[in-house]
Amino acid sequence: MDNNSQGTSPDAARLTAQLAADDPTTRHPKVSPPEQDQPEPGLDVKTEPVPDIGLESYVGLGRLRGRKALVTGGDSGIGAAVAIAFAREGADVAIAYLPAEEEDARRVVTAIEEAGRTAVALPGDLMDRDYRAGVVDAAAAELGGLDILVNNAGKQVINETLEELSDEQIDETFQINIKSMFTLSRAALRHMGPGSTIVNTTSVQAYEPNPMILDYAATKAAINNFTKGLAQQVASRGIRVNAVAPGPVWTVLQVSEGQPKGKLPVFGHNTPLGRAGQPVEMAPAYVFLASGESSYISGDTLNANGGTPTP
Ligand code: NAD
Ligand code: MG
Question: What's the pTM value of the predicted model, to 2 decimals?
Answer without folding.
Answer: 0.97
